[in-house]
Amino acid sequence: MSAADAAPAPPLRARLEVALPGRVAAGVSLARLGRWRIGGPVDLVVTPDSVADVARAVAILADSGVRWTAIGEGSNILFDSAGHRGVILRIGPDLARYRADPATGEIEAEAGIWVPCFVRRTLTLGLAGCVHAIGIPGMLGGLVAMNGGSQRRGIGDAVVEVTAVDPAGRLKHFARAACDFAYRASVFQRNGAVVVAARFRYAPADPAALRREAIAIMAERRRKFPSRLPNCGSVFVSDPALYATLGPPGAAIEAVGLKGTRAGGARISPVHANFIVNEGGASSDDVLALIALARARVLAATGIAMRSEVLHLPPDGPLRAAHEKAEATAA
User: Fold this and answer.
1) Domain-embedded: residue 286
2) Cβ atoms within 10 A of the Cβ of 300, count?
3) Could you point out which of 23, 172, 204, 229 has its C-alpha 20 to 30 Å from the C-alpha of 292?
4) Which residue range is the domain that position 249 belongs to?
5) For this structure, is 227 an active site residue?
6) Mean pLDDT, 10 residues at a time, over the chain (331 residues)?
7) Vertex 108 angle, CA 104 and 111, to 5°
């Protein structure tokens, strides 16, 4: 990611349109790019359709000095209602090439493949180790960057190598050890590189058994998680100390009496308290107010400060943890 105070000037747009014809759009509503359906306009959105195009776009953006942010599905991002002055580099479904070798259990996949689609392919091939991610909405690149998963597991468990474009536009390869995977974290959250592909290795298993496990996981997700209203999934990261005190974040938020609490058009879900839903017309400030309230109440009850999984993109700055913005707004 690159940062500067200037907004995109016409020459930058022209350079991007020459390099990526048909792949540059201006004034796009960020509400269309995120699962909360919240957000104002952004100056430019660039949607590459190849790894080479990602590198080409990043090199141009780096040279321009204009602020830019790479996203995938936007499934864990709260876009600001005021919009964003800068460029969004969207790694979308056009970047979804895939190759599997059932004999070795290795799969190579680009960052724009839809996670449930990727998982279903591993099930069909009889490869175990990825079924925990079956119901996670989002693109594979974002899941790798945050080491996302469920059941306290992460997609990074099976990574062999990650291919990423560094902030200067150079293609680089990261062996698993260099990825520095931890719980819901990786080096890609710190080094500014854009994940464009990854190679995984999985163990063989019975496809029918894997499908049964996937069906059970999806049934449990439908039972526990809200799906009717726009939301970004889990808001807070599970913390071992909190888990030992009040349980996972949803249980902790419920224990302090906030399940179902509203702020404007946003609401802490009455189905699962670690979800915040948009009941209609919610603003980013509404969501941030609920994040700040939940964090403060749980901190007062336990002495433990919850961290958000969700990131916030402000009008004039880089992505950062939503709880940081929420606290600054509440102060």
Assistant:
1) yes
2) 9
3) 229
4) 240-330
5) no
6) 50 96 97 97 97 98 95 94 98 95 96 96 95 93 94 93 98 98 94 98 96 94 88 92 93 98 98 97 98 98 96 96 90 69
7) 155
